[in-house]
Specification:
4 copies of one chain form a homotetramer.
Chain A (H helix, E strand, L loop, with lengths): L8 H6 L2 H6 L2 H21 L13 H9 L6 H11 L2 H12 L13 H37 L4 E6 L2 E7 H25 L13 H6 L4 H14 L16 H30 L2 E2 L19 H25 L10 H27 L2 E2 L1 H15 L1 H10 L4 H22 L5 H7 L7 H7 L10 H19 L1 H6 L8
Antiparallel strand pairs in A: 1-2, 3-4
């Protein structure tokens, strides 16, 4: 690392080598060469002829291009670029130096956007696939967690105030549901990605029509063939100079969506850590503050929130870039896409690595869960108490009023005097209410009944919805070799 | 209109009554009643029984609820709300006043979110359908336009500088392609919309499980049945107190996407108006400035840009609201959704009304198109000239150098002396270049050849892609009765 | 309220009549008339003459304009606008109908932007003054609160985890400091606001130079004089057709800044409500949920958060509008400013009304504060315990290790077993540590010592910084008559 | 450059070494050491004593700290950090290794935020100073340009449609006025920047109060003294753990404001390039497209637009981070500030370098300016023609109607037939209008009269407003040694 100049923290701190490589110079220029090779091969297969009917592309040329697909002579290109200030032209030159026979047919009929657009589309397609893998891993972690804790009853919180109980596992299904929506949209957008194909300077394919001597069918086949060779099912039907920047907005939405889901989870974890009911994993070597040895800050979850906020903020740039493209193309997309596209993928990568890391070993403290529940449970069971009393012949209105008064007093005592909830004592000691402490305590012995269908919902959701999805992606999940990523 | 207090311009100026009605108080409270009716009917059909096995819901009660589905007693509800400050409770009370027998079973087992969430989902679903109609109408307009002008060759512009020609019609296909992406995503999201269903305070369905005496299957059926009655195929599998606010982000993305496409078109129209090659329609009564009678500002296109920018800006709010919901629900979504959801739909409505209005009668000035083309065409045909000269036995390098010099001189003359392009004169007068003015002029007689496949692409795109889509939506297009909307 | 069409919630629910009036049609058109009157008066004072040296403006005309400054004939204007579709022309016509003599000199030499820009500048200037009043009131509330609770020691929280104690009052000074930054910037921007003045169609003042027969000095005086009459110290030195939209961004920053400060406070209040250490005020009539009678949700603070998020989101629109104005002016600012400027002021109004409402009667529960503090205090005083033990002749390392072990055990017990903190018991019962329970309890009797300078900082900050500011604005604070605003 | 991993384009392409160094690891850790040194020196000067009244800090220790202020042993720190995972602790250790005597007093009583916050404040303060220099340079360029072209009359454009003329120089004053607003705000915010000072873990200064044996005055002096040593006039009066993140929003506003001004200029340049009236400078070596040798795309202005959009988009992150800080501090600010603060400064740096580069050598084509003006001028002088005719005894209404008809015909001919404006021919040939072609041509000989006070405004603005400002900053302007920056 160069300590004398600014270094991008996304690279130096948070992301996987896999994603960093995808957006490296090496990958970019290798993809350009793949585009040029695909073009030459397609010309060859479509039998491009000169005015005398002789084939323009020779087999040896193609072999030469193949031989030098990956051994990029960066220095050669860099020196040329300093001279002529045109990156595509410089790399044509450098490739040509390595392929003396093919030099003259590299980039034949093409424009810069042919290599830049198609390469960027491949990078984003492959980037989404990496993201998909990471996403599935997190879903898997959360599904395991949900099942494990499906029956641990906890206070639910609305307005961050105690509310009708749920279970720890059920809460986790909500995070999964968000991520499954992200996955579904990711798949939708993956299918939306087409090649920019072979379209010429302003999208009219004029140069190719000329090269094929006005043979429209051959031009259409060329477009299709090159796209297939680059791994796309289709090319965009029509384009200006570039593929529509609107597609970038859809990809950015996928990533911002993942950030939104992750942010919600991150904030919840920070609240849960405060409650001491759940904690992110801590590494053995990790030490807390030297002053407060017991302190365990939810640093990963906070970082998850921070990076998610950053990724969410990027979306607006993509919209405005697409919305402000003038006519067949303006270049106010270049510098901003050059930065925002890789950074968005790197951020999503960092976020999912963190999310995976946290969910893999989340700790639950059932005793604390139970303690919180107990403190508030009395308020929640007052309705059941009323039922019992009525069954025992008491007047509903009278009992209701007694309970109301006791509740108010208990709440006041807690907040104004800082004491524990003594509602049960009050009720048990009230001669009018025909219920003893023993029975009251029994009433809350099995708090699962207050959690309604939380446990069953968790089971049903995991078995009916999540497991089939994970099964479908089994192979991809296996590829997510965690050894490859840095945490 | 109340002139003494601020009035929302979206309502007073830009949007359709249809969309305004959808987000009115009347629609909202009528939908709440539909939710309560659906709940009562479903209980009835599932044979909800009291502890003695007697049916809880009576047929007369359901009939009463039906009878008062739409005659909302606003005053009654308003007075109650002033007293108890709870809108749902006030409307339960007001409905109950009209349905004395059913009063006690309205809202049985339910929470506020049962009516608010399900109603908002219906409003958004119906809102998207209105938007879909408007979108299709614009696509239709543009398709007609593209076919009409498929062969009108025009300069293309990259960097807003003249580039290889295209056609007016071909350019229009780019706008259509953007809108078809919006349509595709709209359909995808429409399918994502599910009912919030019958889930209880924190999503556990506890109260309903109690009502059905622990019969899980009946609770599941209730959830499904109510959802079907409200026009949904499904309910969300799991929820907290509310449906996941993440869904709002997807709907907002659809609308922001439409804004992005519309903004790009609006800016292009403003550039085209400057070029005097195209104009938005002008109404007969419309007068320009009193000072400059000839002035025709592209005011609609500018407004389209303005409203689109506003709609694009809303997306970030939706993301942050979803990202910041705490645990089972926090109320920091309420005031912002109450404003941003209706306004987003109203904005999309306003935008598509404008877009429709502009595209319905766009004017093209072929003579101006041709003039611009002619001014720049000489530069663009220099390559062809070179070919001809070489065919006539001249030395390629010598001719290339002559052309280069003439080009430079011509460009300099235009910019430094403000004169017309005299490149052809220079070439024709050059004894070394074996081409006469007559031939040069002939060379540019049929500029369609410089536009490559633009015309064919337009035909293919409209016939193969757009027309089948329009056919599929034929019925919806017919519904888009323009008489209903204010322009 | 019209129940059949969408109604803006900002108006129907959250804002003051005062702010609603400022952005009403009546205010707008009255301001237009003030602009026209100021122009006529200034012409008169500068002795505008026709080509024969006779005065163009008569005293009677000015009197007529004055007589009809506020009795706007809306219907007349509305009918005209339907015909000619130009709002400024319609209001010139309507004003002229009421002022038959002055009719011909209304708007003399002026353009629409003369009335629209200057009026909008006045509205924003006056809007900022209302906001300033509200802001000062909140600062006053918080200052009173800070002094009242300057000595109430509470756990501070970093990472929402217990940290070194502070005081309730000290925490409040942080909110004040944020608001004082907002106030300081508000004053800065108020001074930045200048009149658009009298600049003509494209800012060159050409028509006025003609009217004054090439007398440059008179044109400059006219610009200055009209600006003074409209309550501005200066006019912008140069303009295009409109005043620079960049100014709008600065005003929007002031409002977004207030939203940012308010959001932070709102979130803190929601966390404090969860902790039960503080609560927003509850109205007597206000009832909680019928199911959970004790529940007190921090609804105002949540709404504060929601509205602040909405206001923060608006900033980006203002930047993009300013950034995208083309050359001397483009109209893509019109529809967006028409909506976003009033809404931003209404939002800031709503936010400060809420913030005032909450801070006026915030409740603190010192007993709960103390309880939380006590639960965590043992961890925080371990260092002091170590000191004491060493003083009593014990080996530092041995005692440190004992304390470390006890701390770990206590923390584990809390989280894994859900029990209270028993660190003191452990220490008191440890024969090696020479400290009894009595002394330990004494050690935490006066927890103010753990809060360092929190109390003194609060006193110093309020007395040295806040009070002088409030004194300076005493008159403005008195004007903030709360009777006028709806909560 | 590492070609195998992603490289930040801001560093590799667009920014100055000066700004990259400011945000390097070396600068950061050197600043940390400056903080530690300032703390030790201040303790020494305030005579910090142990319990026996002996000085705690020795002169040799301070000398040692000074001796190793800049020779950071990165490797030592890095290895330590790998072990204990705490960057501040690792650098305390590494510094201590170089300063064996001072080791024990480094960081005495301080928290991590002491070094991180104060260092970041210094970086931002110095960053703003660099930006100020760059800004002044651009203002200087534009002022020179404005004076040079103050009298070159050009069409103004509203709605990007021809409007009443202005001058090239006058238009440039609008850009300057925007930048002067930026400069004014930058100065305002520079003054707002205070030290975070010496505040302790949660802002209470508890540890320092202890160190100074409850001497409040000494703690206050310590805070002040350290701040002065770090180059600040003051420290924040109160803080939580960190300085208020609200300050970051004000700094971000300054930078986003510069982006807004620059974006507007960039778009105008792109429109002006299209009109061929102005061009950004081209380097000698720079070649256009190989296909279209004459093409000169406004690439720098487009890049300026792109980078400005990116910088504008960052503002919302800063607001949300400040708005979401919980209580005394939460760590969801860390990763996002680590990325967004440096990137915002780097972007502003890149933008102003480009803006400077463009304005230094902007090219104007007066002949093209004149040509456009001439094409539209006839429409604009019709009012003057009317005056003349009336003076010559003709009936005003008759002549007005003749002119109106001719105008309509001329406009139609231009747009529908693509021909030149022949309004003058029509008027000259009309026997009823008593004006000959010669006189008409004379009327437009000196178009400066149509530009009103544009020239005088330019002179006045530059002399009265801009020059005094530049004079005031003369020294700073000289420092802007362009040799240091890469373009």
């Amino acid at each position: 690392m160069n300590v004398d100049l600014y270094q991008e923290p996304l690279v130096s701190r948070y992301t996987s080598k896999e994603m960093q490589k995808l957006f490296s110079e090496r990958t970019k220029f290798t993809l350009w060469r793949r585009c040029w090779l695909a073009l030459a091969e397609s010309f060859y297969e479509l039998d491009l002829q000169d005015e005398d009917g002789k084939p323009i592309i020779k087999e040896e040329q193609i072999q030469e291009l193949k031989d030098h697909l990956t051994d990029i002579n960066f220095e050669e290109a860099r020196k040329k670029e300093e001279e002529i200030r045109h990156d595509v032209m410089s790399h044509i030159y450098a490739y040509g130096k390595q392929c003396p026979n093919a030099a003259k047919i590299i980039h034949l009929g093409a424009t810069s956007a042919f290599v830049t657009c198609n390469s960027e589309l491949i990078q984003q397609r492959e980037g989404l696939k990496i993201i998909k893998r990471r996403l599935l891993k997190v879903i898997k972690n959360l599904a395991d967690f949900a099942i494990r804790y499906k029956g641990i009853v906890t206070l639910a919180y609305t307005h961050f105030q105690p509310a009708q109980p749920t279970t720890i596992g059920k809460r986790a299904t909500l995070y999964i549901q968000d991520l499954l929506m992200d996955l579904e949209y990711l798949e939708f957008v993956l299918k939306m990605i087409k090649a920019r194909g072979v379209k010429g300077t302003t999208g009219t394919q004029a140069s190719f029509l000329e090269l094929f001597h006005e043979d429209h069918e051959k031009v259409k086949k060329l477009d299709k063939l090159v796209s297939l060779k680059l791994g796309f099912d289709n090319a965009f039907d029509v384009t200006g100079q570039t593929y529509p920047r609107k597609l970038d907005t859809k990809i950015a939405e996928v990533l911002a969506g993942i950030a939104t889901s992750s942010h919600k989870f991150g904030v919840d974890m920070r609240l849960a850590s405060h409650l001491k009911i759940m904690e992110e994993p801590f590494e053995k070597a990790q030490v807390g503050s030297s002053a407060m040895a017991y302190k365990r800050n939810p640093m990963r979850s906070e970082r998850l929130t921070a990076l998610s906020r950053l990724l969410i903020g990027k979306i607006i740039n993509f919209y405005h870039t697409a919305a402000n493209q003038w006519l067949e193309r303006s270049l106010d997309d270049s510098a901003i896409r050059r930065i925002d596209i890789p950074q968005s993928f790197l951020l999503a990568d960092a976020i999912l690595i963190l999310y995976n890391n946290i969910t893999k070993n989340m700790i639950v403290y059932p005793k604390v869960v139970e303690k919180h529940l107990k403190e508030e449970l009395p308020f929640m069971v007052t309705e059941a108490i009323l039922m019992k009393a009525v069954e025992r012949g008491k007047d509903r209105q009278q009992i209701h009023e007694r309970i109301r008064i006791h509740s108010m007093e208990a709440a006041k005592r807690i907040k104004e005097e800082g004491k524990n909830n003594d509602l049960f004592e009050r009720i048990a000691n009230d001669p009018i209410i025909p219920i003893e402490m023993e029975e009251l305590n029994k009433l809350i012995t099995d708090p699962i009944v207050f959690a309604g269908r939380a446990k069953e919902q968790t089971e049903e959701y995991i078995h009916n919805i999540v497991e089939p999805t994970l099964l479908k992606y089994e192979d991809i999940l296996k590829q997510e070799d965690e050894g490859k990523v840095r945490y």
